[in-house]
Design goal:
GO terms for molecular function: zinc ion binding. The chain is an alpha+beta fold and 190 residues long. Helix content is 25%, strand content 31%. The structure holds zinc ion. The site of zinc ion has 7 residues, from helix 1.
Length: 190
């Protein structure tokens, strides 16, 4: 992002003298932008490919769920290579999906019981958000809502580019931020 011609808002075509000014402009004018100017270049992933990444996500999030005290709190993990088109097709129609063209970065949040229900639909798996210890009835789970508050699960996709020997190498990475809790349930809880 150093050449003069590239410092231009991809959404309204306003030109800027510095990348930092474009970032400020984007934050002020297009904070909730959903338009992806290069959407045509993102092929629709096959369902096999999509499920490969959904399954990876479920395996990794369950590894973050536990039954002890230190299993409670803010958690995060990344899938170090995650295709952009898979991320876009999973989340592009969601209410809290947004895209920053200047940063080439996407974000999508889910909140509360409504968010939890929506994620069950997207992942096509009702049990994605918890792990149960069958001997103690203790459950480790992703916290999205309790009697006091709503909490978020946030998905972020960003890209790293390496330029070397006249070649560009790009790496797409997905990061997920969420909050976990652990509790003993008296009744069998679904
Ligand atoms: Zn603009």
């Amino acid at each position: 992002m150093t050449s003069q011609s590239s410092i231009c808002c991809k959404l309204c075509f306003k030109a800027f003298t510095a990348y930092q000014k474009l970032l400020v402009h984007e934050r002020n004018k297009h904070l909730y932008n959903k338009t992806i100017p290069h959407f045509y270049s993102l092929p629709q992933p096959s369902s096999e490919q999509t499920f490969y990444y959904i399954n990876s996500f479920i395996v990794l999030i369950k590894k973050k769920l536990g039954f002890s005290r230190h299993a409670v709190g803010k958690k995060r993990f990344s899938i170090e290579t995650f295709p952009e088109n898979v991320f876009v097709y999973l989340f592009k129609n969601e209410e809290k999906f947004k895209y920053s063209p200047a940063k080439h970065k996407y974000q999508c949040c889910f909140e509360g019981f409504a968010g939890a229900a929506r994620l069950k639909e997207i992942f096509r798996y009702d049990h994605w958000s918890f792990r149960q210890n069958l001997f103690t009835n203790t459950k480790g789970y992703v916290l999205l809502e309790d009697y006091e508050n709503k909490y978020q699960v946030k998905f972020i996709w960003g890209q790293t580019t390496l330029s070397e020997n006249d070649r560009e190498f790009t790496l797409g990475k997905m990061t997920c931020n969420f909050i976990t809790d652990s509790r003993e349930f008296q009744e069998k809880y679904v």
